[in-house]
Every structure is written in structure tokens, then in C-alpha cells.
Amino acid sequence: MEQLLHYVWKHKLFPLRPLTTTDGQTVEVIDPGLHNRNAGPDFFNAKIKIGNTLWVGNVEIHDRASDWFLHGHDQDSHYDNVILHVCGIVDVEAKNSRGEVLTQMQLDVPRSVRGNYQQLITTDTYPPCYRVIPTLSRLTVHSWMSALQTERLEQKTEAIAKRVDDCGGDWESAYFVTLARNYGFGINNDTFEQWARAIPLHDVDHHRDNLFQIEAIFMGQAGLLDIDSVPKRYQKDALGEGYFNKLREEYLYLAHKFNLQPIDWHLWRFLRLRPQNFPHIRISQLANLYYQHKAGLSQLLEADSIKAMNEILRIGVTPYWETHYTFGSTSTKNGKRLSPFSLNLLLINTAVPILFAYGRHKQDDTLCDRAFDILEQLKAEKNHIISMWQEVGLPVENAGDSQALIQLKKEYCDKKDCLRCRFGYEYLKK
Fold first, then answer.
1. Can you give the C-alpha Rg of the chain in angstroms?
2. Looking at beta carbons, which pairs linking 266-275 to residues 24 or more positions away fall under 8 Å?
3. How far apart are CA 49 and CA 26, in angstroms?
4. DSSP result, 330-377
5. How far is CA 211 from CA 16, 208, 214, 256, in A?
6. Which of 40, 256, 374, 410 has the greatest CB tally within 10 Å of its CB?
7. pLDDT on residue 248
8. What distance in Å separates the CA atoms of residue 411 and residue 383, rounded to the nearest whole number?
9. Residues in contact with 199: Cβ distance below 8 Å, sequence separation at least 6, in sequence order
């Protein structure tokens, strides 16, 4: 319950009766201090009136006073400037490393706060705070959604920055990896990222004017030119059509030339996957995108509108795949272009985070602002998470809202981290 004590102290959700130290002095919390989530006292620079004296210093909080010794604070000089030791239960007298007796206060969590907290962390209904949602002001909802939207972009920026580091500082390569990852559309995200990292773009550039060779490298590095990757019922047809053999022969030549190693084809997932989302189709689209010089960061940065971005990313498959979903299995002829729904997701999960991350890298606020503007213009995602929040009364007007609510569900609700959530705060104090 120490986390709840932190929360009660931080937000001053104190019992109605006066606060007193264990030796009977009155306590007035003027400023609870700055919450410290790193090593050291729990709250810095608190302002507390104890008796008739105003103290400015640090506050340490424990479930039990004896935890002070259990954590070794009595031997640590970093805790010598603690002006108040706040505990759920004061079971011992505590001293600092100088041997000075600490001023201690037992803090009782109000029954209503404790009860509401138990409801939040134990209820199976999602979201657990659904009762309070309809009562929240528009300002409260808007401010928290804005913070969540920024938090999600920051999180994605960190992932992109790591890809840039992994790519030796090459933003173009990092963008290709990010784009490829999101071509997995959830099911194959991790595998697409692993595949993209295995594509030596600088080597592929030597063959950029040859779509067949690009597709050979792309399919080969995905492990999909291994005959065992083709379902047994289609293997005979795949070999008989000739295209599979031609791609494979070209790949073996290029693999020897560039010392390529494919990823394991077993990594690709097909279960419950619609045919238009099969890896073969997505890789063919990426090969076409790369061949048409539309898979680069510079093209994205030059696009000044959503329409322009859609024109860049709206792509179909190479000729063979217009009549196939896998090697050897024929289908009705179809250009298999990305759907408006898929384009919307690519802009949300690729274009916007890249613009924001690159803007941060270049310290260019116009790029960061453009990222937020695009989110507000794009349609909201449609999935079970968004439906859940809509059912309890939260408005979802654009992609910025849906991104915020996905962040809320994944980083707060799923982790039962209600004490860091503003909706949780409103629920606890109701």
C-alpha cells in the first residue's frame, strides 16, 4: 500500500481530522514537494509547518516505520535532510545516519479512497473507472487526452531513435525499417522489422532500376524463396509456373554477391490473416514502393498534406502478385493496392511518429507541429480499444483521440497503474 500512501500525500487526500506527529505536534502540509521516482527521498523540497515551525526539506514515505531500517536509510547520508517520515503504521522510532531521531507521522488513508482504489485494481470490467467518466468536465478529458497523445508520440520517438542508432545514424534506413514494421499491421510487425533490418539498402541501391532484382532480394531475405515456405499443396504449381524459380535463382546470385543471410521463414504468421495481408503481398508492395523511389524519408518530408502522403504510399503489387496471394496459388486479377483503412494506419503509425522524431532530432518545431496537425486531420482508428472507451462516453473525433486512448489502455489500464491516471485520480477522490 506504500504506492497509495505516496498518492494520498502527493494529492493531499488527507483524512478530515487534523494531522499530527507521533509526539502530538500539529502538521500542516503547505506543499507536499516534488515526487521523486529515482533514488533518494520520495519527495523533495516539501514545505511543512510542524507545530509553530515552518520546515523546508525532504519527505520519506513507508508502509511501516521499520522499513526505514530495512531499506538502510539509517546508514545513508542522503536521507539526513528528511524533515518528516510519513508511515502507514509507526511501529518503531527511526534515526538518520547522524543518530538524530526523525519526526514521524502516521498517515491514515481515508476509507473512501482506500475502497475506491481496491475497486480500481480488482474489478474485471474495462475500464474500471467507467462510472466516473460521464461526470468529467470537457477540460479534464481534453487535457488528459492531449497529454496521453504526446506521451504516445514520445514513446514512439524513443523507438525510432533506437532504430536510428542501430542503423548507424542513417535516418533513411531507420525510416524504411519503421515503414516495414507497420506493414505488418499488428500480426507480423516484429517479423517485418527483423526482415527490414536484414535488407542491405546500400547494396539494393545498385539495382534500384530493376524491379525484378529488388523483389528477388526482398522475397529472398524474407525466407520466402525457400520451397519449404510454400504450402505443400502449392509447391508443384509454384515450381511449374517458373516465376518462383527465376526469383530464387536471381536471389542466390545476389545473395552470393552481397553475402546475404535470409531470416527464418517460420517467423511469418498466417493464421487468421486475410490474404491481402499475407507477407508476400506486403513485401511485393514494399518492393514496388522502393522501386518507384517512394520509400524514402526525403519524399515523406516533402509531402505537405495528407493527400500528398497518401499519393506516396498508395501502391500496388508487382505483376505476378496481381493474380497470386502466395507462390503457386492463383487468384482473381487485382492490383491489390493499399486500402484507405491501411493507408490511414500507415500515416498514424509511420508518417506521424517519423515527422515528430525527426523534428525533435533537427530541433524543428514545424515538423513536430505538422505531426500533431496530421493526427487531428486523420480518421480515428477502429478497434476494440476505441469501442470500449466510446461505450463509456469518451468522444473519439480523430486519430489524435484514438492514439491517446490506446496509450491509456496499454500503459495505464492494462498495468493497473490507476494512481498515475487523471481519470483514476477523479475516481479516487469522488
1. 29
2. 266/223, 267/191, 267/194, 267/223, 268/188, 268/191, 268/222, 268/223, 268/224, 268/229, 269/187, 269/188, 269/191, 272/187, 273/187, 273/188, 275/325, 275/331
3. 8
4. E------PPPHHHHHHHIIIIIHHHHHHHHHHHT-HHHHHHHHHHHHH
5. 74, 7, 5, 19
6. 374
7. 96
8. 17
9. 176, 217, 218, 221
One-character DSSP codes across 385-422? HHHHHHHTT----SHHHHHHHHHHIIIIITTT-GGG-H
Q: Yes or no: say if 120 and 424 are a contact pair by the CB < 8 Å rule.
A: yes
pLDDT tens profile 335-352: 899 999 999 999 999 999
Write down the pTM of the prediction. Answer: 0.83
CA 170 – CA 200 distance, rounded (Å):
12
- Round to whole Å and give the CA distance between 267 and 284: 18
- Helix axis angle, 352-362 to 365-377, nearest 10°: 160
Render pLDDT for 351-367 as a digit per residue (tens, 0 to 9): 999 999 999 999 999 99
For residue 305 the three cell numbers come to 498534406
